[in-house]
Batch of 2 targets.
Target 1
Amino acid sequence: MSTGNGRDGGGGSSGSIGRGGMNSQGRGRMGRGRGRGGRGGRARGGRASSGNFSDRKNDDSGESGSHGSGGNGSNNNAERSTGGRNGYGERRRHFTARGCGSTGRGGRGNGSSNHSSSPDSNTSSTSKDRVEDASNTSEEKAFSTDEEVLIAFGPYVRSGDSEASQIHQEYLVHKNQHEFIDAARQFLIERQSTPPVTEEVKPISKFTHLEEENDPSKEKSSGNGAKSDVFSSGLASAPASLPSPMPLPPGLQAHNQNINSNTVQPCTKPIHVSEGDKVISRAPPGMGNSVLPPKLTSPVSPPISNRPPPGMPPQFRTPPSILPAPVSAPSTDSKPSTESFKPVKIRRTLTRLEEQPGKLFANEIPAAPSGSTMTEDGKPPSLTIRPRSELTARWIIPLSYLRQRAIRKFEEQKVSSQAAPQNLTIRDALKNLAVGLFRRGAPDNGSQASIVSKDILGPESGEPENGRPAKDYPFGIDQRTDSVFGTVPFYAPRTPGNVVFRLYFEDEAHVTLATGPCVSVVPAEGDYDSVLRFILSNFKSKKGTAGVSSMHSLASVLELFSPSSKVGSHNRNLFDSAGRVAWGCICESRKVVELAASVYVKKKNQFKEQFEIEESNDKMLKMELSSGEEGIVDETSDANGDENDKKAPNDGRSKLAAEERNNERKWKEVQLAYASILKAAFSNDSNYLLLKRDLISKIRLEYELWCPLCEAFAPNPFADFNDEVAKLPGDVSAFPHPVGNHHMQVCLESRRKMQMQTLGFVPKFDSIASVISKSKKWGKKPIETSIFNDFSNAIDKVFNDEYAVSENVYRRRENVRSNIESMVASSGAFPVGTRVLVFGSSANGFGSPNSDLDLCLQVNGSSSFSNESGVEAMATLATKFTEAGMHDVNTDRLTARIPIVKFNFPYVEYGETIMVECDLSLQNPLACLNTSLLHAYSKIFPSTCVLASVIKRWAKNRDINEPSRHTLSSYGYVLMLLYFLTASESTEDGFVLTPENTKNTAPILPNLQWVDPTWAQNPAGPYREIPAKPKNQYCVVQHPTEPNYLVNSYFYRSGLESLTQFCSHPSRKIPSYGMILASFFHYFAFEFNYKKNVVSLNTKHCYPILEKEIKAEEDGWSLFRQGLAIEDPFESFYDVSHVLKNTNFQTIRKEFALAYTKIMNSLTSKNATGKDLIDMICEPLVRDGEN
């Protein structure tokens, strides 16, 4: 309890210090002239607006208010206190403090209290909001939130009350929201017995017919605790001068009628929202109050889909039922199962905005699909705010969807013999509906995966329950669009990053009802100190590798740190505090690395011992089997049991190997996070304002030990040779001080040794342009660049000799296509007019004379062909092929997503039979669309075909071009090349500016999916791109196999001659083949950010970056997959590189680096030729054990 005494004075504000006490929860009471501190405040009096302190493991969102500062007194905080707006918060840190109080309006006082407080709202344990203590007084409950104060205060201002108008005028002058809220709250407490003078209005809590409202015999319910009917909600009071409520639409009557009635008819009149005991009639939020727009179209509300995003692998597809089937009574004869139940994890569905039934807005900003619209700088639209800024989520969901779901849940309850409500109301339909704030790309919905989540409805009892608020968040009905809408307040996280709102039901969290726009949290100049302090507190509150998330946050802050131009070395003391905290964070991250290193070494030694034991056991078992006892056979033994015994050692080793790989993976994750901190610390030139230069030099020295190809730090050369842990990263106690250039060379030598042991070569990291410029600057012997001319000639010769397709080959393919089309027509299995088209490498210009002939059956558009009838027709056609003399007819892939028949066509040419390998597929229009796009690129810039031929030869010889063995397909390499050319630029010196270094001039190759048609027809002047892709009926087509998925097929395909002239114009100084190929290898070996970005042609040249977070959010891609990701140009949900395993990705990246290193080494070779260089790059791989 807290005690105090003070002088009473008239008109004391809510921030006054007066006589009063604190209860055991640390919550004071506010009174007239006797303000007893603020609820959730520090019990020291003063202004005490409330705060919401959210519990989260890693993140940090929730509503927080300011704490009171009060009269003279001491706080001995030993207990836990909760408080704040909506009554949330948890105080963790215990402290003793003395405060000097402020003077309220009319009173002073002093006192002492026992309570506790928390330094931050984001170090809690759960994302659900903590509820307010039920011991609040009736006055506190009346105006416990700022929203209630504002809603109740508004009528007094509008009625012309002089004191209310004065309070409002002071707010308009001083713009101090906290003082305004406090003054308004105190005013309302004084005036509780004197309501504002307005027109009389009858208080009602639900939507009813007008005749029912005027009939006193009709019983009306009120209050949050009672059930409301389908149009009721739970807002606070509102002014009474607004129009009367509208009658209910047909099919949704009052008195708790069932929600499964007829369809609601749209209404163009103002909507009505119940707010406590009164009714508001207004347009929906964001539409204004004066003029209502015309009738809106109801959002499409498809039934709940259990399907994963299109293209998801079968193992992640959702089971047919999202709820368990009814469980029958167990048989008394059967034994109870001892096997533990493992629930099937259901992946998040309805991830794309087009599939979602609802809508979500963040501060009235709508969401937009990626690629549909871009800002002027080419970036996806987003909302940028500072940490801890206010956020408001406004949600909309159709009534039809809520009705369907409520009826389905009602039926499921009846089937499972659960008690079902007799009448389904709007509160029943909104039960478990929640809005959550998530890191963009989070794989799951639900309160456990969110930063913070909030239920729309409070408990029916009106009391805090299981982490739910005591009251509903505002919601209402839009009768014009037959939808329900509402708002939920949030606060932005404290750490930088991208977040999104999601709307979902907690009992079906995998179904995403709506997704909001991307909200980018970016610290401003004055935020860095508080942000870094929060990260430091997270470091100190966590142990082990759990601090990896804080390490990523620290790297983001160091990377984003960019003070204004007015800040310089003369006033760097502005960031002294932030700099000390930043260095503390770096030191704490080193502790995380040291702990992870010790755990890694300990487990590694344990696995080594266990492997030795397993090998010893295997040897003993083999000796027993080979001994004389092997002739003795126990006839009673079970042969299967013996076989299982033999397999047991292998199973044990497999388990150990999996655990060992997991240990290696965790250790790599920690090293990657630590390396990102070091790189951000010294690469950002502004960080000298945060960190001293000698500290940055030591950080640079430590980073020299890092190798991105090995994904590991080299052993610390300054540590004790016998201490295995000290040689690992994190321990810098042995580092020299001060740091000199010779110390850098020592670290480089240690890294080279590790690279030779791990990779087999020492990679060259510097780009060609930087190497040549350094040689000129330092006066060294000029590097011979003439090798690139010879290299380019050799590349051209390889293409003409091995990959150029002659007219004779094109004629052969056309004859084969024509013959197969005739057989299709004569089979009678397909409609009249069915055509056979050539697609793939045989038609796109990127193939070779030996390429297979990929064919596609295009059925007449007026004919409908189901999957079953298509498979049956393809089987009939396969029989026809066999009868016609086709060889090796294979129907194994008839049941695939796109049925395929494989066969060899015996083509006779000049008396010689040539077997043409053919793959005939059914209805594969997107493959033909891809062929058209690649063919257009090959036409406007034939150099792409030449470069692709060498890349294909290199990939095939290096054994990284076989999707069946989890490596990348030729199509994937072609997309990487096209992305590189459309995102890069050329310089006047003949070098290549890679995507991260471009100057927004014309690209080497115009992007046909974004180029402006008016510029493409006459490519003069600056390069231009369209702001958004067209979405008319000629561009947007239905996906052939994925229902409800539309494909934007647009790309510029007319008038390609002008683009051909533009690409080959001599004034552009296009780099040579050799220069482009070397830059291509360097870019994908060292520059491309595989962790964050995706290779995609659906990006503009001015901002050629598509983040993995976007694909994870919209298409369910894995956000934790560290390797290569390639987006298909048209099937944007499809990852072309999805077959690529992580180990194979590391191999491919290593091969990129090896090819570039060989090119760079040839620059210093006197006798190297272009042909020799190609042979070195494309040298066939010889694996261990091969001759």
Target 2
Amino acid sequence: MAIPSHWVVSPTIDELGCQLQVFTSSLTNLRVVLLTAEGPLVNCYFTLATEATTNGYADANDGLPHTLEHLVFLGSTDYPFKGVLDKLANRCLAQGTNAWTAEDHTAYTVTTAGGEGFLNLLPIYTDHIFFPTMTDEGYTTEIHHVTAEGEDKGVVYCEMQGRENGPGSLIDRKCMDLLYPDTDGKGCGYSSETGGKMAQIRDSLNNDKIKRYHSEYYRPDNACLIITGTVDAGDVLAGLDGFEKKWLETHPTNEMAGKIGRPWTTAVSPLPATKSETIDFPSEDESTGTISVCWRAAETAFAAKHAMSALARKLLWSYMTTSAASPMQVAFVECDDAICGDVSHVSETLSVGYDQLWFSMCPVETLDEVIPKLEQTLQQVVDKGVDMELMGTEIKRFRRNYKVAMENAPADQLYFAIIKHFLYAERDPSDPSVEHNSMKVMADQLKLLQQLEETFTTSKQWCDLLQADFIDAPKVYVKGMPSASMAKEMAAAETLRTDTQATTLGPEKLSALGEKLKKAVASNETPPPDALLSSLPIPDATNLPEIRVEVVHDDEPDGTLRGDGSQALKEHLAKSKISASNANKINSFPITWVNLNTVFVKLQAFCDTTNMDPLLRHCLPLFFEVAFKLSVKDGDVELSSTQVIEGLQADAICAGVGSSSASGNLGVEFYIQTEIEDMAKSAEWLKRMMFKSVFDKVELKKAAAKLLKETPEHKRSSRSMRSALMTEIIYGAGGSTTNANSRNFIRQNTFLERVMASLDADDGIAIREMEECRKQLVSNIRVFVSTNLMNLPSPYLSASNMFAETDLPSSTRTGQPSPSLRDYSFASFPQATTQVLGLSGCENSDVSMCITGVGSTDSQLAPLMIVIEFLTALEGEFWTKIRGMGLAYGAHMWNSTISKTLTFKLGRATDPVKARDAAAQIVNDFSAGKLKITDIDLESTKSSLVYALVGAQATKNEAAAGAKYNLFGGKDASYNKKLIDKVLKVTKEEALAALSKFLVPLFGGSAVTVIVCPLNKVEDIAKSYVSGCVVVKEDELNKHFGALCTNLPNKERKVEEGGGGGLKMDWTTLRMCDCPKCELPKKGV
């Protein structure tokens, strides 16, 4: 479609296969940025500049930007029904809509499969953003209300309650207060809590303030619509025609544009001197704290003349912090006297942005050493000089990673930079080229990087930057100290505040508040007419664009190549295989070749741990931490730990080892990604790290110490504790048959202390156990190679370095992987049980409920997916009756086809008992026929589910990973298409049958349930379970998680050197835990 004449069109900017163009309306000054890129998805980011300050009607911490964001979704003047936007979005091959609020902007998002659905939704979404209803009833349920019991609830209140007093939030909030001080009583927007502080939401905020804020900031001249994917520009602009007419009719003078002006143009007060402060955060564990250090950036990165210095600062901190061999890591983490568990860097682009260092997992006794050590380390770098070879590696890595991101998902790489450009780029109404030129600088990062290389040619230039911007510049730092007493005081204070509030209000007012809430709920639940919901046609999902991959497996006993690859690809591989065999460079390991259009290559070695001995499973987390930091002895080649780290930094885009996403309980993956011309080199690196590394006492001790420092962080997290408790119940104590429980951070704490004792005693036991762990780990391997195989002259020869001179037995070639990897089958799923843990510093609850589910080939999978999608959809039943009532911020449900488990989860629940009961009532009402799934509901659910299935393989990385998931799931290449076809054929009766079969038992007393909650809620929650439950005490977690599958302390253990560096053990001297799965293995490993 032609571009309407009133839109001013900028020249096109080409960037690595993408085209970027800006359209500006001469009628409303609305900006539209279109980033055209190949792929099945269209992404929308409708962005408004939002600033929160203290003024004549509001406080900077009222949370106006965030609370307004929530109200936008509750209906518009043309579509005055709560939830209608998300219900219509689901008919557009999307999973509803979403939004976020940052310190300087609010962005409304939607992602659709294909462009047709997006174009259908655009006018409706725009009407919600600029013409929301913002009713008082919506405010009551969505923002804040007081219940008939005198408790504070509401969706936003629940959200902020879950994050306000977390360690990271408290420390960061204080950093921003110091970095952007209030010098005029108005507050600097960069230090405001845009989400809203709980006290402000309770006592200061009201709906009239939000309405006024909307009138001031939600203007088309203050908005930018960013669209990525493949969609016609003319169609997009035509879809905005109705909005522009309505805006001009209702805002003929657009007075707010002149009254408020462009946000973020007021000068930020300077930071004259270094500031510091110590704060407490609630935590039962008082062993570790955190320090954050911030510096102001010298200027905005989007003034074109300053873009290079902003990039230079980014590269400088990457050089200082990224790798294990970088100066900050060596000084603070990767050393014998480490004083913290991690050092990380973040930066933010603002009108005056900042750089921020986080020193986390610091033992409290070393916290006071951090700042002096930081100053010493920075000065040492200046005195010694920046290593220009390593800086060259950082620049090379930046260039390589940028190319990877642009090839894989250009939208994800560029959309946030476009947002920041809209907010801060210089504008000259008389000269549009000023803004366009800065957009070109923003988009062409490779050109900017080249200019930087040509400018920063000496070590002195980098040292001068470090000296001027960080050593000599004022900074702020905040020390966060854990406090068990604060945790208890907070819980007691909240109980007292709520009780006092209820007493002060009295029965009459409380009753009135309860009635007010009921009326608000009733008003918000007015359903949109069926005619409106069916007014948007559902796009055709059969011809959506897709990322094409070809897969060929070489895993049959007779060497036959199988898979869906083209004949040309199979012939190319067969020819390569013959060449490798003739050169005596062929191996018998099963290998899967994934062919796709890329200039990179990713090698993965999947290790099957099904038969790994119980003791050695405990070694895996330590092995994951240290594996790519060890020295190497490979024939005549010897590399130190530092040389390995720096070599991988120079050659690899990414490299590492960890649990496999395809089979997390039994699989381990080594991986490395490089440019395609470096495939042989990447294969050699993978071989060295898998087979030729040397376990070193010093490196093991550093890694074990680092992991030990992480334990308190995990114990403070309600999500981590919920997951650990659930895993312990489901997979059985001790973790002898899977890796899940042995990875448990509390059990790991015991194991790592044992490792440290062995290393201190220099008895060799820990090192020999790690060697045997590695030996068993790599004894059963399957290799994946993902690249443009047709551009490799001989793929087999290129990959042969991976197993050259490894002296390992050949893996069995049996075609498909073992069924135990495809689907973890429980010998017997645990009986229903409930555990409740009261956690210090936790202000709301996290809940998980789990029962058996279905696998990927089960005939009930498609109907179960439909009913889950229907109940959990945005503005679906769970959303409106759990989140909408302020009972929990999120209610989610999913079926894992790998573990065959069905899980229901509540996040940030203010009342987990009522939220659970609400979910149960919904399920039972559908099962009993009291609630119905309509034809429109079923259509919309299917459309949303199709988006989820298409979106799961929307990038090249995801498409390549899909080949791996298909293999381990026992699926063919067309599995997704077949599943979509099955989903589209599901009837209402089949969906309800799945609900009755699976969901009714989930909420009917058959589930394993774990609840992590505030300390003052434990007793009430425990009483709500009539069959009783186990109360887990925070100070008895070590006891709760039981013993390791290992030897008793101080008991003789018979250990002798085995052949090939193996370890022979007399298992009769080992103590086994009491779990029923922990059986004695065969004597001798």
